[in-house]
Specification:
Distance between the termini: 49 Å
Helix content: over 70%
Shape: globular
Order of helices and strands: HHHHHHHHHHHHHH
Number of strands: 0
Radius of gyration: 19 Å
Strand content: under 5%
Structural class: mainly alpha
Largest sheet: none
Number of helices: 14
């Protein structure tokens, strides 16, 4: 899912930059990446609601495994019809890391977190990812740690504090749930840094399929629990699990990877700010629940922090002029 997304991964060389001016590869219609983004946003928003709903019938690990098995099976059919991927040894390292973190740890942490916080609050917390991406880039990739980034971090984490206060002691909401969703946001951020160079060379569907399959393998210890819970879950919940595997996983992760391949990362990152309001609306319509009032304020503060952190320092005209 989750997701699902999208922070601005730092460029790591020519392969990590946009494939063409404006971020669009030659020969790709301008509307196609936009359709891919819209598809991703709707399905990822629905995933938060579906996970919240399925929490009554499936525990976090078995739900993750079931979703990933369905997703990997569907993706495998599509991916292998386009040829057999041949990642390099270095790319395999990144794929394994993405599979373990994004498809394994992310799903389990988010699923467990959503048993404790509502879908809208979880979606707002995941939007901390752009700030975390920028911080990781400054620490590990030598990118500049700007004043805007420092201020954005402070604002975003102040927002997290408000959300934590609003959830502490409320029914089905607690600080542990907030921490688990933040863990999901952190591993998502790391995975996005790793994914951008991969989709510059490999097909998006191949990257998604391989990572999803690795995530499913990581979650195999939950197989006995999945079998038990499938036997006792109502048919409607089983179909919702299949929905999670096909639409927010197989389709949405592929359309996201396609968009990342053909759009600038910064443009793509802005669009994911639409996920929380979509999730809140879907959660209200499908589950009859909304985040606590203070959580809205915290969510807005988080998004303001993200926007501030993404600002670029102004370059003085005299400093920019050639000597």
């Amino acid at each position: 899912m989750t997701s699902t997304t999208a922070p601005e991964p730092p460029a790591t060389g020519p392969a990590a930059t946009d494939p063409a001016p404006g971020g669009r590869a030659a020969g790709v219609p301008t509307w196609l990446p936009l359709v891919a983004v819209a598809t991703t946003l709707v399905f990822w928003a629905s995933a938060f609601v579906a996970i919240r709903h399925l929490g009554e019938d499936f525990s976090a690990g078995p739900l993750s495994l079931g979703r990933l098995l369905v997703g990997a099976a569907v993706l495998g059919v599509v991916a292998l019809s386009r040829g057999v991927p041949r990642p390099t040894r270095r790319e395999w390292v990144s794929l394994v890391a993405i599979g373990v973190l994004w498809f394994g740890v992310y799903n389990v942490a988010l699923n467990e977190g959503e048993t404790r916080v509502d879908a809208g609050t979880a979606a707002m917390l995941i939007q901390l990812s752009p700030v975390l991406i920028a911080a990781l880039a400054a620490v590990f990739l030598g990118e500049r740690f700007t004043t805007y980034l420092a201020l954005g971090l402070a604002l975003a984490f102040a927002g997290v504090g408000l959300i934590s206060i609003s959830t502490d002691g409320a029914e089905s909401r607690d600080v542990l749930g907030v921490a688990l969703v933040l863990l999901a946001a952190a591993v998502y951020s790391i995975s996005l840094i790793l994914q951008k160079p991969l989709v510059a060379r490999l097909q998006a569907v191949h990257v998604t399929w391989l990572a999803c399959t690795i995530g499913a393998v990581v979650c195999l210890p939950f197989a006995p629990g999945l079998l038990d819970e499938l036997g006792s879950a109502p048919a409607s919940s089983v179909w919702w699990l299949v929905y999670l595997g096909i639409f927010p996983t197989a389709i949405a992760f592929t359309t996201y990877a396609f968009a990342l391949q053909h759009m600038s990362a910064s443009s793509l990152g802005v669009t994911t700010y639409l996920v929380p309001p979509l999730t809140i609306l879907m959660g209200w319509l499908a589950l009859g629940e909304t985040p606590p009032t203070m959580a809205y304020a915290g969510g807005v503060l988080c998004l303001v922090g993200v926007a501030v952190a993404r600002r670029k320092p102004r370059v003085r005209a005299d400093a920019a002029a050639p000597a």
